[in-house]
Design brief:
Blueprint lengths: L5 E7 L12 E6 L5 H9 L17 E6 L3 E5 L10 H17 L3 E9 L6 H12 L4 E6 L6 H16 L8 E3 L8 H19 L1
Parallel strand pairs: 2-4, 2-5, 5-6, 6-7
Antiparallel strand pairs: 1-3, 3-4
Length: 203
């Protein structure tokens, strides 16, 4: 897929105020500081489309971006650690849940996981919640440039072994690095294939 255009549409905390179009949506979410903004910028080829920050938890809104005038990329707040008050965290965790439960345009979620770490319970719990609520998702392992290929394989295998105990079939996954642009082609091809299938089914 060639990204010809990528533009910001709207930010809000109210799912009912998300774009009213029927364009397919792909939501990106992960723990704070997982490298979500950098990944979005790498995928779209726009250096500052999503705002990056050294302060974890900066994204606290549902952010819609229109890609190629044909689908929406949705940047969601991170779950887990964030330097915000408990009240604020509870508020945006609530609208994250509301987004996933109510947004009919959502085609797939991409759950970002830092490849440097062993399986984290908070990630496993979120993946389980998505599965229990019948929300399609794929896993995106980030920061692959920080590890050697052998270690990457070991960490991915560790996750798949844990997931295999509760999941069948296993979810699709991608290995990415924003700085090296690793995984960009594969992720965009995955989205393109789904969009093509959706268009065929609608014809």
């Amino acid at each position: 897929m060639l990204i010809r255009s990528a533009e910001f549409v709207v930010s809000n905390q109210d799912v009912s105020k998300c774009p009213s179009s029927n364009l397919p949506e792909y939501a990106f979410i992960g723990r704070s500081n997982v490298g979500k903004s950098s990944l979005i910028n790498m995928l779209t080829g726009r250096k500052s489309l999503a705002k990056t920050s050294g302060r974890p938890g900066k994204t606290q809104l549902i952010n819609h971006f229109l890609i190629n005038k044909s689908w929406h990329l949705v940047d969601l707040p991170g779950y887990g650690y964030a330097r915000v008050s408990k009240k604020a965290k509870k508020t945006f965790q609530k609208f994250i849940t509301s987004y996933f439960e109510k947004r009919s345009q959502l085609v797939s979620a991409f759950v970002l996981i830092d490849i440097r770490h062993e399986p984290q319970q908070i990630d496993l719990d979120f993946l389980t919640w998505l599965g229990q609520n019948h929300i399609p998702f794929a896993i995106v392992f980030t920061k692959a440039d920080k590890l050697k290929p052998k270690t990457i394989d070991q960490h991915v295998d560790a996750y798949m072994q844990v997931l295999s105990q509760i999941w069948e079939p296993l979810p699709d996954y991608f290995i990415t690095s924003s700085s090296k642009r690793t995984g960009r082609k594969e992720l965009l091809a995955y989205i393109d294939a789904i969009n093509t299938d959706l268009n065929l089914n609608q014809e």
